[in-house]
Amino acid sequence: MSSIQPPSETIWWKQPLDRVEGTWIGIALVWSLIMFFMMPLWHIYGKQNLSNEAYRTTPEAFMAKTQAMVDQYTIRTETNQNVPVVRPPPGSDVYLIARLWQWWPLLELEKGQTYRLHISSLDWQHGFSLQPVNINAQILPGYEMVLTVTPDTSGDQTIICNEYCGIGHHTMVGKIYITEGGS
Amino acid sequence: MKTQEFRICPESGLQFHKPAERLMRFHAVAAIVCLLIGGITALLVTLTRWPAVHLLPADKFYMLLTTHGINMLIFWIIFFEMAVLHFCSSTLLRCRIATPKLGWVGFGLMVTGAVINNLSVFSGKSSVMMTSYVPMPAEPTFYLGLILFAVGALIGCFMFLGTLVIAKEEKTYEGSIPLVTFGALTACIIAIFTISMGAVILIPTFLWSVGLISNIDAPMYRLIWWAFGHSSQQINVAAHVAVWYAIAAIVFGARPLSEKVSRTAFILYIAFLQLASAHHLLVDPGLSSSWKIFNTSYAMYLAVLASMIHGLTVPGSIEVAQRAKGLTKGLYEWLRKAPWGNPVFSGMFLSLIGFGFIGGISGVVMGTEQINIIIHNTIYVPGHFHATVVIGTTLAFMSLTYFLIPVLFRRQVFLPGLAKWQPYIFGISMMVFTLVMMGAGTLGVERRHWDMAFTDAAIGFDYPASAYALMGLVGISGVGAVLGGAIFVLIVVVSVFLGKRVESESNYGAEPTRLMKAPPIVLPEGGHVAAGKWGFAAPGTFALAMLFLAIFVAYYAVNWKYLASVWPLA
Fold first, then answer.
1. pLDDT band at B126 (very low <50, low <70, confident <90, very high)
2. pTM listed for this prediction
3. If you measure CA to CA, which chain A residue comes closest to B467?
4. pLDDT tens for residues B14-56?
5. pLDDT at residue B519, rounded to an integer
């Protein structure tokens, strides 16, 4: 019953290591270090990294920047709420608002081009979840997150909210239309 | 010392101090009540997420999901942990408990807090999920209930430390404290850190909810809340690992392969587990990658290393004990001939396997900075933590309860035939549940979401049919797990309140005896290694560890490959 009894040797830290333990600790430690170094290595060699570029902002300031983009690049409106669909030029700064319970505006991006996508919340916390490509990020009020994205798949993407944000959470759906490039 | 307050259990040889015993009983019963509330809400939640059933309306779903999370993750587990702390100090060290009256104050605060919080959620005005992320508001009573509960739990932690001091002072044990008590001490230290973090964030949030503070910064809330929210799950890890060691000792007479390794692994928990707040912030704005990488890896995975060590040493100690009894044929005679019909053992072993193979691997994979991009806030996340907290902690605590019913409550287990099957019904359903949830999460299905079909939304989205199929399996296996949980609650409640008394006598007034050191290790002929293979004392366990590593490496690689297929991000 010795795990629930005091060890036979009071000075337990001098007890010799069992061989099966020593071997496993060595293997497990090597694996731990490999997993640790994978993360910085992916920053160097991998293509999917968050830049962690972010700014403090206010709902008013972020709304103003988004409105300016919408005024300049809206190409049509959709749904009975007349949500604008915006087609910003490749390489530009694109703004996306998360609010109860809407992603605003809808976006149209060109495949293979790179955009600086700024996202912030005007009220509570939201979750940016792009489907089916499956990219997820946390969106916070008062903070503007910048994702440099390069859509490289064909087919439209849907933005879902995956941070619980109240009773209308499951109706908060947006869209990123992807157009084929080279035209 | 009043000697009439002690009794010795004739079957287990454990010595109980009456005031400690009463505290343990009440904490355990309160824990079971919370488990019952959590279980009923679990059924309703799971039947809503089963797309073909979709039982509840949205408001009730979000309300009951909040109830389920808080009652299971906080109330059930921490009530039970208080009983475990008193057991590992007063009972194992054969010592009187420190300040028993204060223990009732703590228990009263915990019960009051749990009731206030539950009433607040059931009013329908605090459906904010367990995390209560600001600035989404809950009623002030929501936070107040949690604060009162936390203060009560903190009192229990300090009583544990006080009891250790008394045991040392009054020399109720020889040498160093037992490994299991050492593990409980680890849990207690982590608990004190955790509860302090809870106070640091919940007190200002309470003041904000009553209008005394104008603003709580969202990322600051997340950072500190998760230093409470994730670390409180680390109390569970330390506690259920201690329970694994205890059950290995109780059922097999197992002793640790080496005290040094097992205890050092616990110390690694104290040093590094608290960094895990970062696991929840990997795709948050405002934090640097170097901060995320260091913290999410618990400082180069040293805390993960500790769990991998316990994962080897617990079954390894069982294997060595079994081989010493002559079960040396092949790699697995020791495991084949283990008492699979004893729920104390079977539950503990399923807990170990599920925690390691499912909860452990998925946790490390999704806690990788970049891989989190494809997993954050999908239903993969609850898939992971149901494997760690439900299969790991809850199932380990269930197993211990089967041991405690005769020993602590002096009752025979009701329906022992059904009790044999309960760990399998619960454990295997839960394993399926967690795996299909993780599968659905990989397909992008969101957590904490009422309607994956988006029927009320102005813009629609269709998940692939496979996602619906997996969510259907979530519903079916969830119902199976609830059934397993219901059988457990039934058995415990009937045994404790209406069960037949244990026949042997265990009267108060016994002369307290001292806890003696374990006898020196007597090696079988030719040493442990001769009973093993390849020069290893526990070759079967080592082979299992290699299988674990192979699955781990393969699954880790698959996820990097999946990540590489998504849009380039910088």
1. very high
2. 0.96
3. A132
4. 999 999 999 999 999 999 999 999 999 999 999 999 999 999 9
5. 86
> Is residue B352 over pLDDT 90?
yes
Q: Select from A12, A4, A7, A21 the least CA-distant residue to B251.
A: A4
Nearest to B218 among A16, A83, A141 (CB): A141
Contact A136, A129 (CB under 8 A): yes
More confident residue, B432 or A18: B432
Write down the CATH number for the domain with range B3-451+462-502+524-569.
1.20.210.10
Contact A135 B133 (CB under 8 A): no
| A38 contacts chain B (CB < 8 A) | yes
Contact B377 A47 (CB under 8 A): no
- For the cut 60, the answer to whether the pLDDT of residue B1 exceeds it is no
Per DSSP, the three-state class of A137 is strand
Candidates B173, B261, B368; nearest CB to A39: B368
Buried b (16+ CB within 10 A) or exposed e, B218-234: bbebbbbbbbbbbbbbb
CA distance B514 to chain A (A): 11
Structure tokens at B17: 């101090």
Scanning A159-178 for CB atoms below 8 A from B yields 160-167, 169-175
Beta-carbon contacts of B138 under 8 Å, excluding residues fewer than 6 positions away, are B120, B125, B126, B128, B132, B209
Of all residues in chain A, the percent with pLDDT exceeding 70 is 98
B43 CA to chain A: closest CA distance, Å? 20
Provide ipTM, 2 decimals.
Answer: 0.96
Nearest CA in chain B to A145: B285
The gap between the terminal CA atoms of chain B, to the nearest Å, is 68
Contact list in A for residue B296 (CB cut-off 8 A) is 39
Q: Domain ranges in chain B?
A: 3-451+462-502+524-569
- Cα–Cα distance, A169 to B448 (Å, whole number): 9
Closest CB to B521: pick one of A8, A152, A173.
A8
Inter-chain touch A148–B569, beta carbons under 8 Å: yes
* Pairwise CA distance, residues A125 & A143, whole Å: 10
Q: Chain B contact for A41, CB < 8 A?
A: no
